[in-house]
Amino acid sequence: MEETFEANTQDDDHIKEWMVEFIAVVNDTTNQHLSVLYGTDREDVQRALLHELRRIYTETDRIDVTIVRLEECKSEEGPIFEGHFIP
Fold it and tell me: pTM, whole model, 2 decimals?
């Protein structure tokens, strides 16, 4: 008898959009950032944030980061500007 595969229908495995607001202190300079990152959960988004920090600040050894806000972006049904935008 063959084993059957049941797909996991939970939203936990889907990549979601996350808004991350954070403050990075590099060489005594404070920089405030707001980024949209993608991941399945908070840990995945934290890894994406580390990759973004390495990409932005390539010339420094130490980066002090304070995450101000980390929340999943909720999308509205349908286009946001449907019927409201005229080119």
Answer: 0.68
